[in-house]
Amino acid sequence: MLNVLVQLERSVMSDLKxxxxxxxxxxxxxxxxxxxxxxxxxxxxxRSSFYYGDDNFCSIACYNDWFREFGNQAIDHFGRxxxxxxxxxxxxxxxxxxxxxxxxxxxxxxxxxxxxxxxQRPLTQEQYEDRNYTLNIS
Length: 138
Ligand SMILES: [Zn+2]
Fold this sequence. Notes:
Helices cover 30% and strands 16% of the residues. The protein is built from four helices and seven strands, in the order αββββαβαββα.
């Protein structure tokens, strides 16, 4: 029985991930205190999911700490914006979700909306949730 519990705990723990905040372990909260009696330490938070920074940070403070330490490097690595981008008909599509149509029981709750032409085109829920799906032409 104990073996089963140990194995179960191991499999649950392996599904958990660490907060990426570089100073997470320095914040004093009860849930960060881990370890055996007499040898407790403040540790980085570990969870199955996080609310901030695309599921990488336990708090907005940890998210901000990461950006303060690595943000400029990340921007330089992936390309700093050096001139204004311009909204056009070709890149003006955004995805929208209409809560009101849900109440009325209509089908087209998800749609693409063009900021320039104000045109709307229905989306499936799958297209709405697919980060790579867009009507924009780059
Ligand atoms: Zn954190």
